[in-house]
Amino acid sequence: MSLEERTRYIKAFKIVSSREPYRKIYDELTSKHPDYFWKIHVQNFFFPWHRWYILEFENLLRQVDCRVTVPYWNWPRAVQGNLVFRTTHLKDVWYPGNHGLGGNGTLPHLYVVDGPFACRRWKEPRWLEYPCLKRAFAKHPELSDVKYIQGLYKFPREQFLCFEYAVRMFLHNDMHNAVGGTMAVDESASAPEFWFHHGFLDKLWFDWQNRGQRFVILL
């Protein structure tokens, strides 16, 4: 995404999450993740449920700006270059400018204090127990790199369940926990980075399905 596209996306995000009539829908949508948490993070539902979820969020954003789509963050590339939590470069995901997500949380509450989603500039959904976005970046996260992603597509069609497990249990869980804070709890859909992360996981499934018609049908 260009910086202009990022800024446009975040602007639409902040509108749907803070202004009526969109905020009511946003609050209801984000609350579905914890409500169904233990049902949607299992083999049969993980990929299709989250694809539907991303689409619902994108449809909400497009009520504000029809040019906006939910992006994905190919974070294993950042892992490869040891840049996963860098905040200083203009193109960093965690950059504090209007096109970034802001940086790490600060003690004592782990609230984010810079960027468009800083505590003083943005509030969490009304159903959440705490008002501000939290982060607790892991100092030495064990995150998979590009080579791990390349290995996923070596599984034959008959081993789709191995592919699904590798994505769900490692790529999915590890990034949630590495970001920490709001991302590390059942209510993680109320963190802006949730959609970047799950957009990437959905892309992996899309790439798997794109290997051929035989790969589209789940075993």
What does this structure look like?
This protein has helices spanning 3-16, 22-35, 37-40, 46-64, 75-80, 146-152, 160-179, 193-209, and strands spanning 105-106, 111-112. It has 219 residues and is mainly α. Strand 1 and strand 2 form a beta hairpin. Helix 4 packs across helix 8 (193-209). The model has no long low-confidence stretch (mean pLDDT 96).
Label the overall shape: globular
Residue share in β-strands: under 5%
**Into which percent range does the helicity of residues fall?**
40-55%
The SS-based structural class is mainly alpha
| SSE pattern | HHHHHEEHHH
How would you briefly describe this protein structure?
The protein has eight helices and two strands. The protein is mainly α and 219 residues long.
Give descriptors for this structure.
219 residues; single chain; mainly alpha; globular; 2 strands; 8 helices; two-stranded antiparallel ribbon
Task: List strands and helices in order, with pairings.
Layout: H1 3-16, H2 22-35, H3 37-40, H4 46-64, H5 75-80, E1 105-106, E2 111-112, H6 146-152, H7 160-179, H8 193-209
